[in-house]
C-alpha cells in the first residue's frame, strides 16, 4: 500500500494517519506498491493551515512495512542472499553508476557498460547520491577470485569485489535482476563461482563464423558469467586466421588479425579469455595442402588424413613458426595444443605400419620407445614453445598416453572429451595422476552440426537435470574427492557438417544448453528451480531468436 502524496486537508489529517496506521498493523508484512522512495509530502502530514487543533500536532504518516525480500532471479542463480525489508532498487531519473576516483582506472569500463545497459548516467565520484549504483574494489584478499558482494539498502546499490571480474559479475546480477523483475531486491548477495573455467568452444575452422556473430555470443556469455571462449581455428577443412609467415595456408573466408584483435578486445572487456587452438600433429589437412611433402604416409605409401610426419623435422619447424606468430595475437594465459586423433596410432600395428616413426622414436627416446612416445614428445615440445610466452598449455585427453617411456608434462591441462578414441583412458586414471581436467564430455556437451557419428544435439534440460562437472565421461560421475582437480567445463560446437545449420540456428541451438552449463559450473549444488521455471527465466533474460 502507499500513502498518497500531497498536503491533505487539515480536517482529515489525523483521521487519515490513524486509519492508515491501523491498516498497517492489521496487515503485517504488507509490501509497498511502489519501489520509489517516499517523498517529503509522504513522510509527514504537517501543513500550514491555521487552526483549531494547532495545540496537538498531527502524527506523521506511517512508514510502509515490507515483506522480507527474495533472492534476485538470475542465471546462474546467486549462491547466497541475505534478505531484508525494504523497497529494493530500480533505475530512476537522475540516478547514476558511480566509481570512486581511486578505482576509475580499473572499473570505469564496467561502470559505463552498466550505465548504458540500465540507461543511467555515469560519474567518477566518492560521493554517491540516493538512487546511485556504486562499484568499488575491495582489498585484494577480501574474497575468492571472481567473487562479489552486492548490497541493496537505503535506495542505493553497492557492488564490491576483490578483482575487476568479481565486480563485473555483480553488475551482471544487477542487470538480470532488473530485467527479470523490474527491480533488485533489498538485501545482500554474496556470490562466487564453483569453477574457474566456464565457457564455450567454437569450431571456426570447419565453418566460418562472422565477427559480429562471435561478438554477440561473447556478450551473451558474459551475462551468464562465462569466462572462456575456445577458438579451434585450424583443421583439415580450413585454416581461418590470417598468417603473415605462411599466407599460403590460409583459407577464404578467414579472420584477419584485426578481426582477432577486435574479438580479443571485446572479450577482455567482458572478462572472457579467448583460448586459441592450433591443433597438431593431426587435423592439419588445410596446412598439408600447401605442404604435401610433410604428409604422413604409411608403409604402403598411402596418405594419412590430416596427419603430419612427426619424424620429419620440417613438420615441427612449420608448426612452431605458426605458434610463435600467433602467440602475441592472443593475450590470454591459456593455449590449446590439440594433440588428438593422430591417425598413425589408430592402426592395428603402428610400429609396422609406420617404420619411419618407429625408428625416429627409438633414436630419440631409446630402444624401448614406441610411436606413442614420439607423439607424446611432440606435445611436450610444442608446450615448450608456448610456455615462455606465459601460456598454460592444454591438450585433448586422447593425446595423453600411458605405459610409454615419455609422459606428457604435468602442467598440461587435460581437456577431457571422450573415452572412445585410441589412448583415451577413463578419467580416473588422469585424476589419480594428479592432473587437472576440464570437462567437455561428448555425451552432454558436444553440439555437432548435422549430428554425424551418432551424436545428437545436447539439450539444456538434460544438462540441467543430469550433468555435473564430475560427469566427465558417459553418464557416471567420478568421486567427489576429485572435484578440485576438475577446473570447469565448456560447451563445444563442432561443425563436422558445416551446412547443416546457419549461424542463427547454431546460436538458438546452444542458447539453453549454454545457460544450463552456466548454472552447473557456477554452483555445484543441485539447482532448486525445476527445469520449466529455469527455462522460463532463460527465455525472459535471453529471448529465443
UniProtKB/TrEMBL annotation:
Q: Which residues form the Glycoside hydrolase family 20 catalytic domain?
A: 198-523
What InterPro entries does its record include?
Beta_hexosaminidase_sua/sub, GH, GH20_Enzymes, Glyco_hydro_20_cat, Hex-like_dom2, HEX_bac_N
Ranges annotated as biased composition (Low complexity): 40-56
Annotated spans, Disordered: 31-72
| Keywords annotated in UniProt | Glycosidase, Hydrolase, Signal
Q: Name one GO biological process term.
A: carbohydrate metabolic process
At the top level, the lineage of the source is Bacteria
- Please list which residues make up the signal peptide: 1-32
User: Per the similarity annotation, which family is this?
Assistant: Belongs to the glycosyl hydrolase 20 family.
Q: Which Pfam families match?
A: Glyco_hydro_20, Glyco_hydro_20b
Q: Which GO terms describe its molecular function?
A: beta-N-acetylhexosaminidase activity
Domain (Beta-hexosaminidase bacterial type N-terminal) ranges: 72-192
- Protein name (Swiss-Prot/TrEMBL): Beta-N-acetylglucosaminidase
Query: Can you tell me which residues form the catalytic site?
Result: 341
Amino acid at each position: 500500500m502507499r500513502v498518497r502524496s500531497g498536503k491533505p486537508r487539515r480536517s482529515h489529517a489525523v483521521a487519515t494517519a490513524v486509519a492508515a496506521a491501523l491498516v498497517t498493523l492489521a496487515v503485517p508484512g504488507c509490501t509497498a506498491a511502489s519501489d520509489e522512495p517516499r517523498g517529503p509530502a509522504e513522510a509527514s502530514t504537517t501543513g500550514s493551515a491555521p487552526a483549531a487543533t494547532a495545540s496537538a500536532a498531527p502524527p506523521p504518516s506511517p512508514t510502509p512495512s515490507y515483506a522480507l525480500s527474495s533472492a534476485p532471479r538470475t542465471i546462474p542463480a546467486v549462491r547466497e542472499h541475505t534478505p531484508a525489508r525494504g523497497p529494493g532498487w530500480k533505475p530512476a531519473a537522475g540516478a547514476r553508476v558511480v566509481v570512486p576516483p581511486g578505482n576509475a582506472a580499473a572499473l570505469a569500463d564496467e561502470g559505463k557498460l552498466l550505465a548504458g545497459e540500465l540507461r543511467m548516467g555515469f560519474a567518477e565520484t566518492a560521493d554517491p547520491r540516493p538512487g546511485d549504483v556504486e562499484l568499488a574494489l575491495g582489498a585484494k584478499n577480501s574474497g575468492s577470485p571472481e567473487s562479489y558482494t552486492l548490497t541493496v539498502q537505503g535506495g542505493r546499490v553497492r557492488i564490491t569485489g576483490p578483482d575487476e571480474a568479481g565486480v563485473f559479475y555483480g553488475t551482471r546480477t544487477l542487470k538480470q535482476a532488473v530485467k527479470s523483475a523490474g527491480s533488485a531486491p533489498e538485501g545482500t548477495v554474496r556470490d562466487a563461482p564453483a569453477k574457474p573455467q566456464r565457457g564455450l568452444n567454437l569450431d571456426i575452422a570447419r565453418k566460418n563464423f562472422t565477427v559480429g556473430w562471435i561478438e554477440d555470443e561473447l556478450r551473451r556469455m558474459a551475462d551468464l558469467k562465462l569466462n572462456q571462449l575456445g577458438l579451434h581455428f585450424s583443421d583439415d577443412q580450413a585454416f581461418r586466421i590470417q598468417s603473415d609467415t605462411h599466407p599460403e595456408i590460409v583459407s577464404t573466408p578467414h579472420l584477419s588479425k584485426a578481426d582477432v584483435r577486435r574479438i580479443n578486445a571485446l572479450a577482455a572487456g567482458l572478462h572472457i579469455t579467448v583460448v586459441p587452438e592450433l591443433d597438431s600433429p593431426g587435423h592439419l589437412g588445410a596446412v598439408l595442402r600447401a605442404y604435401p611433402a610433410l604428409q604422413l604416409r604409411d608403409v604402403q605409401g598411402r596418405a594419412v588424413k590430416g596427419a603430419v610426419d612427426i619424424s620429419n623435422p620440417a613438420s615441427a619447424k612449420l608448426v612452431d613458426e605458426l605458434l610463435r606468430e600467433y602467440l602475441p595475437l592472443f593475450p590470454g594465459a591459456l593455449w590449446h595444443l590439440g594433440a588428438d586423433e593422430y591417425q598413425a596410432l589408430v592402426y592395428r600395428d603402428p610400429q609396422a605400419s609406420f617404420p619411419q616413426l618407429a625408428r625416429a622414436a627409438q633414436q630419440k627416446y631409446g630402444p624401448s620407445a614406441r610411436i606413442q612416445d614420439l607423439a607424446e614428445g611432440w606435445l611436450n615440445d610444442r608446450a615448450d614453445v608456448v610456455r615462455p610466452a606465459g601460456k598454460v598449455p592444454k591438450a585433448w585427453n586422447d593425446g595423453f598416453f600411458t605405459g610409454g617411456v615419455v609422459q606428457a608434462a604435468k602442467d598440461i591441462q587435460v581437456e577431457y572429451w571422450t573415452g572412445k578414441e585410441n589412448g583415451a583412458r577413463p578419467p580416473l586414471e588422469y585424476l589419480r595422476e594428479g592432473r587437472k581436467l576440464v570437462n567437455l564430455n561428448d555425451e552432454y556437451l558436444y553440439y555437432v552440426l548435422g549430428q554425424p557419428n551418432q551424436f545428437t544435439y545436447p539439450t539444456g534440460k538434460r544438462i540441467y537435470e543430469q550433468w555435473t562437472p564430475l560427469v566427465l565421461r558417459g553418464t557416471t560421475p567420478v568421486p567427489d574427492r576429485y572435484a578440485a582437480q576438475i577446473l570447469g567445463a565448456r560447451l563445444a560446437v563442432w561443425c563436422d557438417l558445416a551446412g547443416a545449420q546457419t549461424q542463427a540456428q547454431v546460436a538458438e541451438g546452444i542458447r539453453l544448453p549454454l545457460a544450463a552449463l552456466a548454472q552447473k559450473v557456477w554452483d555445484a549444488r543441485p539447482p532448486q528451480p525445476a527445469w520449466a521455471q529455469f527455462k522460463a527465466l532463460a527465455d525472459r533474460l535471453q529471448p529465443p531468436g
